[in-house]
Amino acid sequence: MSTTVNATTTTQPLPRWSLAVPPAAVAVLALTWGRGLGPVLLTLVCLGLGGAVVAAVHHAEVVAHRVGEPFGTLILAIAVTVIEVALIVTLMASGGERSSSLARDTVFAAIMITCNGIVGLALLVGSLRHRVQEFRAHASGGALAVITALVTLSLVLPTFTTSTPGPTFSGAQLAFAGVVSLVLYGVFVFVQTVRHRDYFLPKSAADDLDEDGHADAPTTRTALASLGLLLVCLIAVVGLAKTVSPTMESAVASIGAPVSFVGVLIALLVLMPETVAAVRAALRNRLQVSLNLALGSALASIGLTIPTIAVASVWLSGPLLLGLGPTELVLLVLTVVVSTLTLVSGRATLLQGTVHLTLFSAFLFLAVTP
């Protein structure tokens, strides 16, 4: 059951802080871009990054309230992923052979973060407040099926193909993977937003009548302003994450962790808006929205990154390593199995959240000590 909003009602303007934070974060980005970060600038970057994340979540919720679910979560997931993909291509173009595995590491990290970290955290905080939460198993299960197919075709097969040496695709294989990724993601978005949109709405009709549901929907002008400010916030998040990456590289080197762990840290920073939004939705007993965010982000990460990398490989020099290693394959299989068991019931408790967060902890631990 959907709620109707009286078109004659007035809406509150956007809070002043939400208007001030995005340009302030961009100003911090402009001030610190390409510079070494001392203690003062590092603190400024961290404050700008945190503020941009909070503002991004706020504006995403404004847009979601206007367009409804699942469009709101889809907009946030795609916006973050598009900017993330642009960052990956930029780093690969300037990083030389050292960045040959950047796309693989980033996409795999995004899958582990979304399917275990974000899902596990949402299940944990939601079950602590509401004990048992319900969601639509056929919707989330379908999203997991697409994720499994995409990650297998894009990141698992290169390890076993024989046309080229190493965990790589030939040109024809990469083109095929790119087309298939784009087609599968496009069909999923069509099903999510048109053909079976109701599958991805909150399980209980009562969920639509919570405290947020009683608020007047924002005007089109307010929603468009929030959409623009959301994009500004996401650009600031990704840019500030890149700015702080040299500092993270030094910190990673000082603890003896592999260079690939920097990609994990950057992915964690970039996915902060989805994490905060998913946790807030779970606390409001809207677990389906949390799952839409987490699984939708994983799908967008694969479905948009692989086709883009396939096109960019025309001018990128050096090998493009896509195949996962043995440790990553074990974590991926375990994640798929556990996610299937979690999503098949349509009900979530504290136990499932703990299991997913344990897998996420194992991923982080093995990323530091492979």
From TrEMBL:
User: What species does this protein belong to?
Assistant: Actinokineospora iranica
Q: What is an example of a GO molecular function annotated in this UniProt entry?
A: sodium:proton antiporter activity
Q: Which InterPro entries match?
A: Alkaline_pH_Ca-Antiporter (IPR052946), NaCa_Exmemb (IPR004837)
Q: How does it sit in the membrane?
A: Multi-pass membrane protein
GO cellular component labels: plasma membrane
Tell me the keywords, alphabetical order. Answer: Membrane, Transmembrane, Transmembrane helix
Name of the protein described by the UniProt record: Ca2+:H+ antiporter
Q: Where is the Sodium/calcium exchanger membrane region domain?
A: 39-193, 226-367
A Pfam entry, by short name = Na_Ca_ex
- Localisation: Membrane
Q: Which residue windows are transmembrane per the record?
A: 17-34, 40-59, 71-94, 106-125, 137-160, 172-191, 224-245, 251-272, 293-315, 321-343, 350-368
**Where does this chain mainly localize?**
membrane
